[in-house]
Amino acid sequence: MVSSYEILRKEPAETVRRYIRSGGYASHTAGLGKDLLQANLAIMPEEFALDFMRFCQRNPKPCPLIGVSDTGNPLMFTLGHHIDIRTDVPAYNIYRNGLLSSTVADLTSLWSDTLVAFAIGCSFTFEHALIEAGIDLWHISNNTTVPMFRTSLNTVPAGCFQGPMVVSMRMIPDQRVSKASEISARYPLAHGSPVHIGDPALIGIDDINAPDWGDPVPIQAGHTPVFWACGVTPQAVIQDAALPICITHKPGHMLITDIPNDAENPIIATTTM
Amino acid sequence: MVSSYEILRKEPAETVRRYIRSGGYASHTAGLGKDLLQANLAIMPEEFALDFMRFCQRNPKPCPLIGVSDTGNPLMFTLGHHIDIRTDVPAYNIYRNGLLSSTVADLTSLWSDTLVAFAIGCSFTFEHALIEAGIDLWHISNNTTVPMFRTSLNTVPAGCFQGPMVVSMRMIPDQRVSKASEISARYPLAHGSPVHIGDPALIGIDDINAPDWGDPVPIQAGHTPVFWACGVTPQAVIQDAALPICITHKPGHMLITDIPNDAENPIIATTTM
Fold this sequence. Notes:
The structure is a homodimer of 273-residue chains. Chain A is of the alpha+beta class and 273 residues long. In chain A, strands 1, 2, 3, 4, 5, 10 and 11 form a seven-stranded antiparallel sheet that branches. A four-stranded antiparallel sheet of chain A has the order 6-7-9-8. The longest helix of chain A has 13 residues, at 46-58. Chain A has helices at residues 5-8, 13-21, 46-58, 124-132, 138-141, 177-185, 232-241, and strands at residues 36-45, 65-68, 92-96, 99-104, 115-121, 148-154, 164-173, 196-197, 223-229, 246-249, 255-260. The first copy, chain A, has a domain at 124-233: PSTPO5379-like domain (PSTPO5379-like fold, 2-Layer Sandwich). The A-B interface holds A 46, 49-50, 53-54, 57-61, 65, 67-68, 70-71, 78, 116, 152-156, 158-159, 164-165, 185, 188, 192-193, 203-204, 264-265, 267, 270-273 and B 46, 49-50, 53-54, 57-61, 65, 67-68, 70-71, 78, 116, 152-156, 158-159, 164-165, 185, 188, 192-193, 203-204, 264-265, 267, 270-273. Chains A, B: It comes from Roseibium porphyridii.
């Protein structure tokens, strides 16, 4: 059972996850599961989970927490039907003591009763809304990766989790900056409004042409650099904490949930007794 | 150093907390710390904290989490300057094995290295906004306690925490129901939009004149009952879980934070390195 990106673009989230689960699709998820929240993933032993959850609560812009598994339970039942976090993400990075040890397509053999999975909102949600509003995003039009930078903005620490905030940058036409800010503010589960607008030096970015992750974008006349908190922040913070084991999604290869992008809360509706 | 409600109404939050801390004010906090978030309080041993935090994440309407202490640290530094959770709430209820054991004004002798404090948004925030919009709230005009009801709506469980959602009810003039809903939706940190509008029987409330907590309000012609998720939900859930020890605020005697009611996030601004 193998499918292509073009076919899966038209399929509902549950079908896309079924293909991913069976090994029939292993590529990036941008544009799939239309209008549904996608999520960054972090899996770690329970002994670190309370501090990591505090870290997310204290840093809601880089780490908008949208779901947490029960310890040892791979089913993320608040985010959708039959979401099995061991198999439903196209590719996973395994870190041991802070270093990338391998990239795998399935966690079934690695899963254990002590693990807790965290799903964190991602920028696909507000990027989609910006494009719908007619705001061109250079990295998407040119099929590159958004540029990301370490900043001089500190996160609020919790336990072993601490470090600088990572931001993503998009060049926005000057007269649309206010609109772009207003649109993204509607999506607090996907990083919300920008953390900085304008001069990169003010948040400790020395060279806008040399991102720490992703690809540079050309400086365009009549455009302003706009910076959003980025889901790479928790990944960087987790790596620095050098946990004995930690699992994340491979960048761009996200978890597709059943939660609408514009949901008030990222929870499948509560049931009546 | 003793003060009265009328004097403290004009004082900033830090001054109010100083009076509370020194034992100079021990009454309710409605109307104090104008335009600032007030919070419900739950303190419990660390072994239950991860499950309780998951419970809040899964039930954001009854349990909008606005702050979590480090284990054993009584200073809730993300919510304001010098907030000491052992002393800065006017009155505390101590529960042992789910039963109210005592009500005290100070937790200093009870505090231990194993405790974690949770602050949860409260309805004062949106009630204030409704009144500002000219929507009269009967329980406030008549100086009674808002009526609260157990419902047939289930919370999403986490570990030992589970049970029905508790709601508060306000009679809203029919032509203002939509506006009241829209206004409260702006405050996701204070229970957000209503969970139900209209027929109480649909959410398992048999007798609107017999609330489980608080005082009944008269049924008024041309008014609709509107139900919001209520901060009594986590208190009821915690009592049912019968933790060996758990501490909450005495109802109405809330923590006053330094966070503006309309803040995007309940975090004192991150610092630049």
